Amino acid sequence: VNWSISHKDLEAQISNYAGVRHSSMRYYRADKNVTCRNCHRPGHLSKNCPTPKKVPPCCLCAGRDHLQHSCPARFCLNCCLPGHYFRECLERAYWNKHCNRCDMKGHYADACPEIWRQYHLTTKPGPIQAAGSPSERAVSVYCYNCSRQGHLGYECSEKRMQGNMFPTSPFVYYYDDECDIRRRANRLKRKVADLQEAGLLPEQPETPL
User: Fold this and answer.
1) Which parts of the sequence belong to the CCHC-type domain (predicted)?
2) What is the C-alpha to C-alpha distance for residues 29 and 15, in angstroms, rounded to an integer?
3) Average pLDDT over residues 57-74
4) What are the phi and psi torsion angles at 158 (to 5°)?
């Protein structure tokens, strides 16, 4: 590892120690080798830049014509769909949701993690490959929430490390057939139509095939 000081820092006389107070280090003259992060020109720092400050980029899409609160790519933390915020969501709050598929709280069946977990044995197109029999639980299991032995994190009765998150079961209790997949797709289409009708989801342009 090369711990040598950069020659650019030496030329600019930059110090990381607050106790060092030299008049030559307080201001950046034009002959010092520093570059402004606002206009990318040498000789001064961005806080002293005469050029108007750049608009900060949106943290969601990196666009510079808006910020997060007005971003067209904003999404809801309740239903995870774009176009609206939690306070505008038509669904009930996630802490009042109950999944009829895995019997856990925090989501509905159409957003259950089991939907993608059920593909753990499927390696080619066609019907989902289901497990033959439920796997036996290992004796030496540990909880990720309380670190104790004998139970898994989703079964833990101790206070959660993240109070605003609900645990999910790591097991698959049901495997979808083609009819289940088709019915879920139709439900999601109706949900999208309802959100668009309420103005909470922007119209998506059709992608040409």
Assistant:
1) 36-50, 143-158
2) 15
3) 83
4) -75, 165
Decide if 118 contacts 128 (C-beta within 8 A).
yes
* Three-state DSSP class for residue 112: coil
Of 159, 164, 166, residue with least CA distance to 112: 166
Q: Which residues pair with 75 in a beta bridge?
A: 82
CA dist., res. 187 & res. 118, Å (int): 19
Q: How far apart are CA 21 and CA 170, in angstroms?
A: 58
**Do 151 and 141 contact (CB within 8 A), yes or no?**
yes
d(CA 207, CA 202): 15
Distance CA 94, CA 115 (A): 18
DSSP string for residues in 19-87: T---HHHHS--TTS--B-TTT--BTS-GGG-SSPPPPPPPTTT--SS--GGG-TT-B-TTT--BSS-GG
The per-residue pLDDT for range 162-191, each reduced to its tens digit, is: 777 788 888 898 999 999 999 999 998 998
**DSSP class of 13:** T
Q: pLDDT tier at 16 (50, 70, 90 boundaries)?
A: very low
Q: Which helix (H) or strand (E) holds 153?
A: none
Beta-bridged to residue 42, according to DSSP, are: 35
